[in-house]
Amino acid sequence: MDLTLTDEHEAIRALAADFTDRELIPNAAAWDRAEAVDRGIVKRLGDLGFLGMTIPEEYGGSAGDHLAYCLVMEELGRGDTAVRGIVSVSLGLVTKPLLAYGTEEQKRHWIPKLTAGDALGCFGLTEPGNGSDAGHLKTKAVKDGDGWRITGSKIFITNGTWADVALVFARTGNKDGQPDDGPRGITAFLVPTDTPGFQAREIKGKLGLRGQATAELVLEDVRVPDQARLGEIGQGFKIAMSTLDKGRMSVAAGCVGLMQACLNASVDYATQRDQFGKSIAHYQLVQEMLADISVDLDAGRLLVWRVADLIERGQPYATAASTAKLFCSEAAVRAANNAIQVFGGYGYIDEYPVGKYLRDARVLTLYEGTSQIQKLLLGRALTGVSAF
Ligand code: FAD
Questions:
Q1: N or C of the chain: less Cβ packing under 10 Å?
Q2: What percent of the chain is modeled with pLDDT above 70?
């Protein structure tokens, strides 16, 4: 594997780094306190092409390969995990499955708006009663003439109150028209959020990602035409899982950015803070914490770039994506914890950014499959035995 970045990669990284330094880092703490990022950020992300990474230009995308996408996610993650998540979800969990499974009409209708930042998407899989066990979700879609009526609820949906379109997974029965309570009975639908019966209620008081609009979705008899169906009847769970495989790479790339932010802040602080007559950077136990963050960062970045490389070469990547997501999310929590320790008491107050890094990092071990679920996926890949 050649780890040299091309000129194009360097250019997109520089563009994202500049955006992060100018627009995210100066505002991240205020957005966190206000529990809302500036909504105008979505359009600016679209204008820079970040909501269209890897999407062909004919649909308004900015093309680029998966490594370029990861570099952008790293940089956004260095600035504000809440903003990185807005992109990861709208682009990674809505636009990308639309491109992979959508009809030409669906693609032409939604993708240019999503990549431009004129519309935002959310991904509605998790339900109050079914998180890790999404294959047994309960939201129902029943046939109604030439369309469907969807009823149910979703929880913890990123971008939920801001989204213009929700990718909703609902139980329809399987492709043979038979009732099916398992994964084969699930179908995906693109639901415009202004459809009568669709409600999004914001969830306040999150530990981290406080700037991000996380919502409960309530669907009461939401009628959509059959043209809103994404993919085949009964194919929804497969669409959700393949979408999350790539999504995990994006989460892991964001973790790398967060670890980079932890390292930058910790090195700066350690070289400036004096104790016992010299900077704390002189003490071996402090250097150990910096070295630990640095090793986690390097290892994580290599795991993420490997996933991007596998995707580009058309190789299987799901196991590598789980590995990267598991390692990077746990490592991001360790890195943020180490950063707080380097800062001492100052790390515990929100005048400094490291407390937010820990709060934001914590959710990365939970969403898009908890750490336990990643281990079960890896265990199944290793043994051929499903321990779910
Ligand atoms: P549960 O599944 O109830 O798990 C509870 C605990 O049990 C965990 O430790 C889990 O690892 C463990 N566990 C469960 N099953 C097993 C098992 N078989 N073996 C071992 N341990 C097990 N979802 C979306 O669909 N779209 C989104 O945009 C989205 N965004 C999110 C944003 C935030 C801020 C948060 C907090 C969550 C978001 N989620 C989203 C939901 C997230 O993916 C789920 O919270 C996650 O999948 C876990 O589900 P759960 O919360 O129901 O926990």
A1: N
A2: 100
pLDDT of residue 74: 98
Global pTM exceeds 0.95: yes
Mutate which of 88, 125, 207, 367 for ligand 1? The one with the most ligand atoms within 8 Å of its CB, which is 367
> What's phi and psi for 149, nearest 5 deg?
-120, 125
- Ligand 1 centroid to Cα of residue 308, in Å, is 25
Å from CA of 339 to ligand 1 middle: 26
Q: Which of 355, 343, 321 is nearest to 271 (CA)?
A: 343
Of residues 130, 225, 203, the one with CA closest to residue 169: 130
Residue 324, pLDDT above cutoff 80: yes
Residue 3 has pLDDT above 90, yes or no: no
Tokens of 70: 């990861």
368 is catalytic: yes
What residues line ligand 1, using a CB cutoff of 6 Å? 89, 123-126, 131-132, 156-158, 206, 209, 214, 363, 366-368, 370, 372-373, 376, 388
Instruction: Look at residue 187 and tell me whether its pLDDT is greater than 90.
Output: yes
Label residues 194-225 b or e (16+ Cβ within 10 Å = b). Answer: eeeebebeeeeebebbbbbbbbbbbbeebebe
β-bridge pairing 147-158 and 198-202 = unpaired
For residue 134, which atom of ligand 1 is closest to its CA? 47
